[in-house]
Amino acid sequence: MVRTLLALLLLSFGSAAWTQSYPSKPVKIIVPFGVGGSADVYARYLGAKLQDSVGQSFVVENRPGGGSIVGSDVVAKSDPDGYTLLMMSNTHTVNETLIPKKPFELMRDFAPITGVSYSDLIMVVHPSVQAASLKEFIALAKSKPGALNYASSGNGTPYHMAGELFKSMAGVDIVHVPHKGSDQARIAVMGGQVQMMFDAVPTMAANAKAGKVKAFGTTGEKRSSVTPELPTLSEAGVAGYETGLWLGLMAPKATPRAVLEKVNAEVNKLLGSAEVKENWAKQGTITMGMSIDQFDKFLRQDIQKWSGLVKSTGMKVD
Prior knowledge:
Elements: H1 2-21, E1 27-31, H2 38-54, E2 58-62, H3 69-76, E3 84-89, H4 90-98, H5 106-109, E4 110-119, E5 121-125, H6 134-143, E6 149-152, H7 158-170, E7 175-178, H8 182-190, E8 196-200, H9 201-209, E9 214-218, H10 233-236, E10 245-252, H11 257-271, H12 274-282, E11 285-287, H13 292-313
Parallel strand pairs: 1-2, 1-3, 6-7, 6-8
Antiparallel strand pairs: 3-10, 4-10, 4-11, 5-8, 5-9
Helix pairs in contact: 4-13
């Protein structure tokens, strides 16, 4: 009995000491999306800030493909030691229903850490599109079923789901053109190869203001502080339309709780700082910040939310 207690004490002491030393080497943040998108931008911002606060490198590695599945699977199969993290989004909660045959399950194979950010999307079209407003675009799409295309960063991504939600609520037939990343989708729309897309406000608003695309509205419940001149899509003609993009951090499932708590505390400290809140607000982004258990509950609810849309529309991956 005494030996057992001593062994448990030593194990506890060793674990605590190991956790206190974490991170003792560079931490990798896998972004399962392309360079230049919101997940990439905010992962790099967080990585730089975390490096300053904990004195260890946080290296961002982009692994796009398969609508986030390629990079996410890398994390799922990584050592659960806290040195490989996943920057994920609502793509992951959508894919639990949209792409059931994956090499992983989100809540089985990953451990929640915290929510990171939320931003509205902005609906944009190439300047050559013969429509000056959302209502005119809807009328154009209805007059030419299947003739107009919309780009996304891949199946199940917020940009894809925003497009499918728009099709359903506006009653239009437009064709989904998935890309390997939002950067490629953005280039396709600005280049005129694809007519329309939903993109994150922080990454597309400047292009709209520069006239590289025409913007018809944003996707939040209220107007974006970055583009207050633009109506919400609900105001502009699709009553009740609302969606957005959120990001979060997860780790391989068996990662020690103490390590998850340490990462959670450091990230939430940054997200709660006035500097980060003000900097992100100027871009149209809201910091989230949650406890591990709160984020776990949030993820499960979001899986259920998107499950309803996928099943009710009969949505399939392209």
